[in-house]
């Protein structure tokens, strides 16, 4: 039985919305129910992967609609779409477990399409039953390929997400700033999944010119171009049943993006100079430090490829938003590099930890590790690490943060910085708002008030 999107709505424009969703590539078929009772019956009879519901129905409204759907099928993503919305109603929907809330405004159709795509990705993730789970003692960092993750709080949740991704075959898009550990995530997905015994092949899409990147990924035949004196298999063929990790995917030229789309759609590649395509079995994990939705809007990245890659998105937060993890990570790196270099220091002074926490870490975890490694190499053995031993840029940041400011200014600046970062990290404003525990309307209002206060 095919999966379906269930649209529970009795409004006059429901047929138009059904056609929009039905004719969108890669979406399941769409069924409509005009009442809550009919919708619940459809849920029992069909394999529903996402529900879109109006909250004003002929036989129920508001909380009663949400409660009935949640009780009936609590794991199916629920998108609330209503013309009679308010901030209180949006908050009620999100607290009841709705995946998103969309108002029927002029941009309703586009916002609904984005919300449904995101919910479908979430549905695919939650339907997976991992063969194994990461069991890591609390507060203990795990390290792989020179990057450490702290297995507490947010990082434990991230590791659980990685573990679920590892058990699927869908494409994964890892987003995050430079140094947050995107390749680490890709390697963990490979090592935790059933493809662990097959190759893991990495290609940086910014490292090669367009023609070289094309032949590297897809291969070429002898004589296809000047200098092609033998056949070459591309990385997708070389990987076999393994994983191809495409780093800096936003840098791939549009011509290469078109060929990547064919790999994702049809599981086949066509070598340069070849007449026929060949089947491939490898899985794609891609990574970017850019906001791909902005790249799509500017025409630099294909929209259809973006949605194919972002079936299972994983977003890594920068280190400056995980300040509480800096002490444990710094101590972990100190112990590790002391062992590697056979040099022993007398630990990090509390004031040094505070200075590290005040710095913004534009290079993220990688920059923190490099700074600790530098300290191990540069200080005499047995020396305790104090703030004046840190790099000048870190000292300057700590001193600037130490200036006396009213608490309300500090709170305002922190709130604005976090909001702007979330807007860069998330593909939609609705998902950014949800990550902050706000509705989209409340987020807009907060930004206006904070920016007005900053100007005054």
Describe this structure in words.
- The protein has 456 residues and is of the alpha/beta class.
- Helix content is 46%, strand content 16%.
- The chain has 19 helices and 18 strands.
- The chain has a 5-stranded parallel beta sheet, with helices on both faces.
- Helix 10 packs across helix 12, helix 13 crosses helix 15 (364-378) and helix 17 (407-425) crosses helix 18.
- The longest helix is centred in the first third of the chain and has 19 residues, at 108-126.
Q: Concise description?
A:
It is built from 19 helices and 18 strands. The protein has helices at 14-22, 36-45, 63-72, 87-95, 108-126, 154-166, 182-192, 210-218, 235-238, 254-266, 292-297, 303-309, 326-341, 350-358, 364-378, 392-401, 407-425, 429-435, 440-455; strands spanning 3-8, 29-33, 47-53, 56-57, 60-61, 78-82, 100-103, 141-144, 147-150, 172-175, 200-204, 219-220, 232-233, 243-247, 268-269, 278-279, 283-288, 312-315. It is an alpha/beta fold.
- Share in β-strands: 15-25%
Overall number of strands: 18
Average pLDDT, rounded to a whole number, is 81
Helix/strand-derived category reads alpha/beta
Strand order of the largest sheet: 2-1-3-6-7
Tell me the helix content: 40-55%
Top CATH class of the largest domain: Alpha Beta
**Low-confidence segments, ≥5 residues, pLDDT <50?**
125-139
Outline: globular
Using the 3D structure, state the CATH architecture of the largest domain.
3-Layer(aba) Sandwich
- Through-space gap between termini: 60 Å
For the record, what is the CATH homologous superfamily label of the largest domain? P-loop containing nucleotide triphosphate hydrolases
Question: Could you name the CATH topology of the largest domain?
Answer: Rossmann fold
Rg (C-alpha, Å): 25 Å
Q: For the report, how would you describe the main beta sheet?
A: 5 strands, parallel
Kindly give the count of domains: 4
* Count of alpha/pi helices: 19
């Amino acid at each position: 039985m095919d999966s379906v999107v269930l649209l529970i709505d009795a409004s006059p424009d429901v047929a138009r919305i059904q056609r929009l969703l039905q004719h969108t590539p890669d979406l399941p078929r769409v069924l409509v129910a005009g009442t809550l009772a009919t919708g619940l019956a459809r849920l029992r009879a069909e394999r529903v992967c996402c529900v879109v519901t109006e909250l004003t129905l002929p036989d129920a409204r508001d909380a009663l609609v949400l409660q009935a759907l949640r009780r009936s099928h609590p794991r199916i993503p629920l998108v609330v779409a209503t013309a009679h919305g308010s901030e209180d109603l949006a908050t009620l929907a999100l607290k009841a477990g709705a995946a998103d809330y969309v108002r029927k405004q002029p941009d309703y159709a586009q916002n609904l399409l984005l919300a449904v795509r995101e919910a479908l990705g979430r549905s695919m993730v939650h339907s997976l039953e991992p063969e194994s789970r990461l069991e890591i003692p609390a507060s203990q960092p795990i390290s792989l390929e020179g990057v450490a993750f702290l297995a507490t709080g947010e990082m434990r949740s991230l590791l659980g997400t990685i573990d679920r991704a590892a058990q699927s075959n869908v494409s994964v898009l890892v987003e995050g700033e430079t140094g947050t550990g995107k390749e680490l995530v890709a390697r963990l997905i490979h090592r935790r999944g059933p493809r662990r015994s097959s190759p893991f092949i990495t290609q940086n899409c910014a490292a090669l010119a367009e023609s070289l990147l094309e032949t590297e990924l897809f291969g070429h035949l002898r004589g296809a171009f000047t200098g092609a004196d033998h056949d070459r298999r591309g990385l997708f063929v070389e990987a076999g049943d393994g994983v191809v990790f495409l780093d800096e995917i936003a840098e791939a030229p549009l011509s290469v993006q078109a060929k990547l789309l064919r790999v994702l759609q049809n599981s086949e590649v066509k070598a340069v100079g070849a007449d026929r395509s060949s089947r491939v079995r490898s899985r794609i994990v891609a990574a970017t430090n850019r906001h791909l939705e902005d790249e799509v809007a500017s025409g630099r990245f294909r929209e259809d490829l973006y949605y194919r890659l972002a079936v299972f998105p994983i977003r890594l937060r920068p280190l400056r938003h995980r300040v509480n993890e800096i002490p444990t990570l710094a101590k972990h790196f100190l112990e590790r590099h002391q062992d590697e270099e056979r040099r022993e220091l007398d630990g990090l002074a509390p004031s040094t930890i505070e200075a590290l926490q005040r710095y913004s870490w534009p290079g993220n975890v990688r920059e923190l590790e490099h700074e600790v490694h530098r300290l191990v190499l540069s200080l005499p053995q047995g020396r305790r690490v104090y703030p004046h031993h840190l790099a000048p840029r870190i000292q300057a940041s700590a001193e600037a943060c130490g200036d006396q400011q009213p608490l309300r200014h500090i709170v305002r600046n922190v709130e604005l910085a976090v909001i702007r970062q979330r807007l860069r990290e998330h593909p939609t404003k609705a998902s950014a708002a949800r990550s902050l525990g706000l509705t989209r309307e409340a987020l807009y209002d907060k930004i206006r008030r904070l920016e007005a206060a900053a100007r005054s």
